[in-house]
Amino acid sequence: MSAFAVDPTVPRASATDIAVALQDPGFGRYFVDHMAQATWSAADGWHDKALLATGPLSLHPAVSGLHYGQQIFEGLKAYRHADDSVWMFRPEKNAARFAHSAARMQMPALPTEDFIESVTKVVQLNLDWVPQAEGEQSLYLRPFMFASEIQIGVKASDYYTYICLGMPVMPFYPQPLTLWVSPTYSRSMAGGTGDAKCGGNYGASMIAEAEAHRNGCTQVLWLDSATRSWVEEGGTMNFLVITESGELVTPELNGRILAGITRDSLLTLAESHGLRPVERPLAFAELCEGITSGRITEVLACGTAAVVSPVVGIKSPEIDLTVGDGTPGAKTLELRAHLTGIQFGTEPDIHGWMRRVG
Ligand code: PLP
Ligand code: COI
């Protein structure tokens, strides 16, 4: 299998440009010099694998991904350690989830080795763009794939384009979260695409996010669409609670929830913080009752972009609940410190999650 070939003519940002970007990178405000790209066709499989200048694509307006939403993506990060080495966090989990999303969307799987090589090379060719560890900045990688056959007929495409972008980022949510439970909108349903990371899931959720913002909330807390009685996940994050009896509870993966890699990592770390990890259905009524009675002591949400974010309030047209005393929970902050410590190399990586890339 051929490797991703590096275009030697890609222009390089100056040290000054990079320094300016890293002063306030936001989330996707600046992009690194190279992006990985590959093409798939029914006739030739994956080919034309290359690292090119990050820049505009030339696309015929009839490519089917622009019309019918055959599109998937991933998100993972590379972290600089104090000794200047650079590491990725569990990239093989993202490769596997990308393949899972592809299967659901009737798209070709990108082989794991191609996924890993592409993300690794985007980092390795752009090491100057990987922020220093202070301030929790990192290099976010955004692999994605879309149907690129020129075709207005509705059918699975015979051509796909894969790209991986790199960008320096801050954590997505700098402040503790208040989540909005929409009375109207749903994210996923049985047999739908809830456990695939496809753009349509996000496009469909923006109206609820706008509703959340109008009501003073940061993001949405989704309930199941059939009964609106079970908690599923947050808009860009999985959802967890800590109970007074020492459980770290999160809704089980029921096919409608994204199998978050941060979620899996927190469940693994729970025991070292005196918490029992529990994956089970979580009723919205139990969540409300638990917050009100104090049986639920902490609420948190997690994801690659969101890291581990304390949830301090839950709102809907009927309720306005404050979690605990309205400040981030102690165990939540401990879990966040532990996870980011592993990622930035200040805590031992006993689970073998980090992959050195630079
Ligand atoms: N759920 C949704 C809907 C997301 O967009 C994300 C972010 O990727 C997550 C959960 C968390 O997944 P991960 O921890 O793998 O980033
Ligand atoms: C991530 O955490 O990687 C996400 O995909 C969330 C969001 C930026 C869409």
UniProtKB/TrEMBL annotation:
Pathway: Amino-acid biosynthesis; L-isoleucine biosynthesis; L-isoleucine from 2-oxobutanoate: step 4/4; Amino-acid biosynthesis; L-leucine biosynthesis; L-leucine from 3-methyl-2-oxobutanoate: step 4/4; Amino-acid biosynthesis; L-valine biosynthesis; L-valine from pyruvate: step 4/4. Gene3D superfamilies: 3.30.470.10, D-amino Acid Aminotransferase, subunit A, domain 2. Pfam families: Aminotran_4. The keyword Transferase applies. InterPro entries: Aminotrans_IV, Aminotransferase-like, B_amino_transII, BCAT-like_C, BCAT-like_N, BCAT_family. Its cofactor is pyridoxal 5'-phosphate. The modification N6-(pyridoxal phosphate)lysine is found at residue 197. This is branched-chain-amino-acid transaminase. It comes from Brooklawnia propionicigenes.
